[in-house]
Design brief:
This protein is of the alpha+beta class. Helix content is 14%, strand content 25%. It is built from two helices and eight strands, in the order αββββαββββ. Strands 1-2-3-4-8-7-6-5 form an eight-stranded antiparallel sheet, covered by helices on one side. The longest helix is centred in the N-terminal third of the chain and has 13 residues. It is globular, with a radius of gyration of 18 Å.
């Protein structure tokens, strides 16, 4: 019995600590008109009406339906291996860039103010933080978002939730 218990303990300790669960996969907000949402699996989506950006570093990039490369107002979906950066992982949406003022997420648009953005995101369980560039952002687990009023809103996931310092 002791040997079996030791083996189970050893196996449970040697598994990766970062597993797919509710902290790394996110439900689609009710008040959005995006056609896809962050952490949706590439293989589960119908991208037949979306234009693919063919050469963009290591990302697989698609424009939302009705948008194309060169448009000023767009929604862009970035697909990468997730929930870890291993190439053997399936592709999921790991970033969404929005520059179209008609797109809403959590009831916000790119024309929302920074204050409206933070308030609404906090109502939805996000907390304030800063990005690596020291710009204001919000996060919920490993999902981050930031706004540049009048220009864009970005949503992205980090591979592992970061701890506050």
């Amino acid at each position: 019995f002791l040997i079996l218990f030791s083996m189970l303990l050893l196996c449970s300790c040697s598994k990766p600590s970062f597993k797919p669960d509710e902290k790394v996969f996110f439900s689609r907000p009710k008040d959005t008109n995006l056609e896809f949402w962050i952490t949706e699996k590439f293989d589960d989506l119908d991208l037949s009406t979306c234009e693919r950006e063919h050469l963009y570093y290591e990302n697989v990039v698609y424009y939302g339906t009705g948008y194309k490369s060169g448009d000023e107002e767009v929604v862009v979906y970035y697909f990468n291996p997730y929930p870890t950066p291993k190439a053997t992982e399936p592709l999921y949406i790991t970033r969404i860039d929005i520059t179209d003022p008609n797109v809403t997420v959590y009831g916000l648009t790119i024309n929302s103010t920074q204050e409206e953005f933070v308030e609404k995101m906090q109502e939805n369980g996000f907390v304030t933080t800063t990005t690596v560039n020291n710009t204001p952002a919000v996060k919920k687990g490993n999902l981050y978002a930031e706004i540049q009023t009048g220009a864009w809103i970005d949503f992205w996931v980090e591979y592992e939730p970061k701890t506050e310092k």
